[in-house]
Input
Amino acid sequence: MADLVFVLLSILTVVSALIVAGNSSVIYSAVGLLFTFMGVAGLYVLASADFLAATQMLVYVGGILVLILFAVFLSNRISDAKLSNPTHMRVPSAIVCIALFGLMSNAAVTTEWAVKTNVEYAPTTAVLGRLLMTKYLLPFEVVSVLLLAALIGAALLSRPESAKAALKPDMEEGQ
Amino acid sequence: MEQLTALIIQKVPALAVAPWAVTLLLIGIVAFIILQFAMVFAGFGTYLERKIAADIQGRIGPNRVGPIGLLQFLADGIKLILKEDIIPTAADNHLFRMAPYLIFTGSFAAFVVVPFGFSLIAADLNIGIYYVMAVTSLVSIGVLLAGWASNNKWSMLGGMRAAAQIVSYEIPVGMALIPAVLIAGSLSTQDIIRSQGGLLGIFGWNLFHNPFSFFSFFLYMVAALAETNRTPFDIPEAESELVSGYNTEYSGIRFGFFFMAEYADVFVVSALATACFLGGWQIPFFNAASLPPVWANLLSLGVFMAKALALVCVIIWIRWTLPRLRVDQLMRMSWKYMVPLTFFNFLGVSLWVLVFKGKGIPQMIASIFG
Output
């Protein structure tokens, strides 16, 4: 049963990933990405990582994918969105792709994976929370500061020009 | 689910050859029941909405089909099914067809963790509330795609507005639910409801737990109204500016999907508010676990539905009472007022739980009097 589900989810993930890479329209690629994310979330659930699966949906589908769609819709060439993913330099990219594929599959085959048999489907949320607040507190805080910096930067960049001009004298005085 | 499968196999040994089939069948049955509930609720919701709207505006409302118009929703449903499913030639065929399903899936998937009663829940997921937040993000994608695929300015604008609104208000909605999570120490909806039981009756509810959780309830209701795109936050559909927003080009049963998703959302919002702040299915002054299972489930189902439907009525009442906000007002409200307020509430509740060891005000008062 679990194997069958795994195969189905993998097919969903890989096929939609192919759509992402192969389709000529950005919008269709984005939709393909949606199903890739869902397939990966399903794989997380199979690996008993329920919290991670929900986070995957929330962050990637609810955040990043919406952002991608917005970026496409708000670009000036919205009428060209149907054919906006042209292919260039087929031969070099094919070489790079094949090389990367060989490297990664080699790594995947030769690495000795720590295999866990009889995985118990135990909830992970409490454990994750405890670890984030104790052992991994510093990385957690560093990441939040980084995100905060990105937020402030985005807010500053998107200010109207007049507000930026009003801000400038203060900054010069500060120097 | 596994216990139920085991029980059925125990009763009917012939099924032991294919236990997965039994599990699959059970999942199918549960999904079917909940889907039917969502459908019927959508129908009932439209009737309720039209009747309340009519009362507020001094009209009569639907009164022709069935007694006091009760069967109006059947007529509407049949009409939607029989109507031609028009797909504009300039529309993007595949995406246009897919978008309503995405939206409906996103809304309907939230029903999995709606705690209808003492043990009436499709799956008591450990990540309950978080799961709802995660699956509703499908709705924003669906709305964006519906708007874009329609190849129509109004649909496009409506879709973008709706997606921006859903993404913005997701944060206050999530943050406003956190007090209940903190008090219960769990994300599971059933655990949250269990933490609100006890001998205090309605004062055991999270609503009365402390001042911050009291405010959180109202913040949640406002933010959730905005997330479901209902008036006074129905800017994506604003008839006066956008015809009907992202669903302008849809007709027939595809339009019906948008409609059902909207009412499913309204119910999920009310159900979550009930579960997180209003004690869920807790029968006041009774311990549901001490009753016989059938009665415990029936009574708790009744209590839960009464609370949730009351909230649905409030949401409808708000829709027909308040005027619509402007886009900029809406965004300002989300980012400048709702988000900081919910953060403040979050800090307050965390401090409260830390300082008073999770005890609420009613509990402290009760302990004074022994």
Q: What stands out?
A: The longest helix of chain B spans residues 19-56. The interface with chain A takes residues 20, 23, 92, 95, 98, 125-127, 130-131, 133-138, 140-141, 144-145, 148, 156, 160, 163-164, 167, 170, 187 of chain B (CB under 8 Å). Chain B has a mean pLDDT of 82.
